[in-house]
Fold this sequence. Notes:
CBS-domain, 5 helices, 32% helix, disordered C terminus
Amino acid sequence: MTEEPTTISPNDSALDALRTLEQLSIRHLPVVDDNGELVGVLSDRDLRNGMAASTKVADVMNSDVIQAMADDELTTIAELMVDNTVGAIPICDERGVLVGIVSYVDILKSLSAIERPNTREAPANKPAPKRTTARATKPARAVNRTRSR
């Protein structure tokens, strides 16, 4: 989980939000009110369509937010992401105050750490996986399916 993520206000301009996403190289910004309570999520997808300079975050954010609690299992959060086709889940405390965010990148990093804790080498009891390079003629899906077996 990314604790204390960068946030934005619903009254901020969508253009400022886009700049923040680009500067930080992130895809999701939690939208919080003055009390720190989660009121929405703004993603790079929300900003893809043209917007006027006067467009506010509140006009383009997703206010129907799927959220999780800090003590939820990683598998539960991953299932929420898959079931709802979202790339990140805000994490809130029992009052609805944002405490973090879990993105698909966080989940991949966690899975990588489970497979090979604190090392870039494969575990001693498993042979190192063969590295393959996807060819332009092969669809990425076929490569991913093969590698996940």
